[in-house]
Amino acid sequence: SQKKYRNFPMVPRVVFGNGSFDQLGEILMPRRNHSEAPFIFLVDDVFEGTGLIDRLPVIFNDQIIFISADEEPKTIQVDAIVKRLRDEFTELPSGIVGIGGGTLLDLAKAVAIMLTNKGSACEYQGWDLVHRPSIYHVGIPTISGTGAEVSRTTVLLGPEKKLGINSDYTTFDQVLLDPELTKGVGKEQWFYTGMDCYIHCIESLNGTYLNAFSQSYGEKALELCKEVFLGDLSPSESRDKLMMASWHGGMSIAYSQVGVAHAMSYGLGYLLGVKHGIGNCLVFKHLDEFYPDGVALFDTMLKKHRIQLPKNICATLSESDFETMINVALSMEPLWENALGSNWQKTITPEKLRAIYQKI
Ligand code: NAD
Ligand code: ZN
Question: Do the interacting molecules here have an ipTM over 0.90?
Answer without folding.
Answer: yes
